[in-house]
């Protein structure tokens, strides 16, 4: 049974792992909170609940893989990058004359889907971490992750309400918000290596 010092060290380590693998979520969450304030979609609680649902799904998958109960078809998870690309392109095609940024994601499940797509590569990091942990330390990681999701959402909500951020998105939100989602999808596709595998299959 780990002592208090060991648990504190585990929490600190969990915070580093979470921050390193989810720093890009701050951008996505901030954009979603700006859209929630201006367009009313997605609702703030959709963003928070969707983020918890998405991160929860990623962590659950990592724990299951770490236990040897499931094999993740790497790098095919990179195809999830098509989701944010599709959402971004759809928002670009549906742009209007309104000054409001487009609601790229409008529901809880949409937020969860983007979170999962954006964090699919996190599983590769989480699996060896959870495989090396005893149950008590693993629980400490899970609690730390749950708290940090709230911190991430709170930080993004503050940024999403900052006058400069709101003003920037208000001026160029019609192309900036969809472009961010398209860029995230492209990064997922490229960094996962799935494009190379598709090229090999086509050759």
Automatic annotation (TrEMBL):
<feature type="transmembrane region" description="Helical">
    <location>
        <begin position="105"/>
        <end position="127"/>
    </location>
</feature>
<feature type="transmembrane region" description="Helical">
    <location>
        <begin position="172"/>
        <end position="195"/>
    </location>
</feature>
<keyword id="KW-1133">Transmembrane helix</keyword>
<feature type="transmembrane region" description="Helical">
    <location>
        <begin position="139"/>
        <end position="160"/>
    </location>
</feature>
<feature type="transmembrane region" description="Helical">
    <location>
        <begin position="12"/>
        <end position="35"/>
    </location>
</feature>
<keyword id="KW-0812">Transmembrane</keyword>
<feature type="transmembrane region" description="Helical">
    <location>
        <begin position="47"/>
        <end position="70"/>
    </location>
</feature>
<dbReference type="Pfam" id="PF03596">
    <property type="entry name" value="Cad"/>
</dbReference>
<protein>
    <submittedName>
        <fullName>Cadmium transporter</fullName>
    </submittedName>
</protein>
<feature type="transmembrane region" description="Helical">
    <location>
        <begin position="76"/>
        <end position="93"/>
    </location>
</feature>
<dbReference type="InterPro" id="IPR004676">
    <property type="entry name" value="Cd-R_transporter"/>
</dbReference>
<keyword id="KW-0472">Membrane</keyword>
């Amino acid at each position: 049974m780990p002592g208090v010092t060991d648990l504190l060290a585990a929490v600190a380590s969990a915070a580093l792992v979470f921050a390193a693998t989810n720093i890009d979520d701050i951008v996505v969450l901030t954009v979603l909170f700006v859209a929630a304030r201006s367009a009313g979609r997605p609702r703030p609680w959709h963003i928070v609940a969707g983020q918890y649902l998405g991160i929860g799904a990623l962590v659950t998958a990592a724990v299951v893989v770490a236990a040897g109960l499931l094999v993740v078809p790497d790098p095919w998870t990179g195809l999830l990058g098509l989701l944010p690309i599709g959402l971004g392109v759809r928002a670009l095609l549906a742009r209007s004359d309104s000054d409001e940024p487009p609601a790229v994601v409008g529901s809880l499940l949409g937020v969860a889907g983007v979170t999962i797509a954006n964090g699919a590569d996190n599983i590769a990091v989480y699996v060896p971490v959870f495989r090396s942990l005893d149950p008590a330390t693993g629980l400490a990681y899970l609690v730390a992750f749950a708290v940090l999701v709230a911190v991430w959402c709170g930080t993004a909500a503050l940024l999403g309400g900052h006058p400069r951020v709101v003003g920037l998105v208000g001026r160029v939100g019609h192309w900036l918000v969809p472009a961010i989602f398209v860029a995230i999808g492209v990064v997922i596709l490229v960094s996962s290596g799935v494009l190379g595998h598709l090229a090999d299959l086509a050759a």
